[in-house]
Specification:
The structure is a single chain. The protein is globular, with a radius of gyration of 16 Å. It has a single domain, classed as Rossmann fold, CATH 3.40.50. It is built from 6 helices and 9 strands. The protein is an alpha/beta fold.
Length: 188
């Protein structure tokens, strides 16, 4: 397993400034109510997710990924580990990681790009852009209104016949979801 060091991630410069605050020795995004840190420790925690997730879960999309599709990693998180792991495994597909924080991998990839965006408000892409959208672990930071907005946005940017995979911890977010996400969670 690869451990992420501070030198492995970089803050990407964007037009809109991102402010950070330090609380209890951890770095947080000051422009949002997002509860989790965006520092090296969080990147290390998230680096363990792709291995466990791909072993336990995963959309039935391997054949399409091998042929080449366009994939969104919605709220990719510090280090964008899922995008990196999938981009390496499926070089014919194109991956885009979007996150509210601009802490992305420092290395460049031929089939992976990163973009800053506030996922619960708006996914910064035109309609029907992606074949597959993956989103994980957002049960805590989203309000019920943000869940509804995000669900609509994920469908809006999806191409016909596309696939959305949500990987959430059931029960953690059940108190914080709206009617549309409630239907999704109930279906699970």
């Amino acid at each position: 397993m690869t451990h992420t060091k501070s030198s492995d991630i970089k803050v990407v410069d964007y037009d809109s400034p991102v402010e950070y605050i330090t609380r209890d020795g951890r770095l947080y995004n000051a422009n949002t109510d997002y509860l989790l840190p965006v520092d090296e420790g969080e990147s290390l925690r998230l680096s363990r997710f792709p291995v466990a997730h791909n072993y336990l879960f995963g959309a039935p999309f391997a054949e399409r990924l091998e042929k080449g599709i366009v994939v969104l990693d919605s709220a990719c998180g510090a280090g964008a580990h899922w995008s990196k792991a999938m981009g390496e495994k499926y070089p014919s597909s194109v991956f885009t990681g979007v996150d509210i924080s601009n802490v992305f991998p420092s290395e460049s990839f031929s089939n992976i790009e990163f973009k800053m965006g506030n996922i619960p408000k708006s996914i910064p892409f035109p309609d029907e852009t992606f074949d597959f959208s993956f989103q994980k672990l957002l049960g805590l930071p989203f309000t019920s209104e943000e869940w509804d907005s995000n669900s609509k946005e994920l469908h809006r940017i999806l191409k016909p016949g596309g696939y959305i995979e949500l990987s959430e911890i059931y029960g953690v977010s059940a108190h914080n979801i709206g009617p549309l996400m409630s239907q999704v969670m109930h279906a699970l």
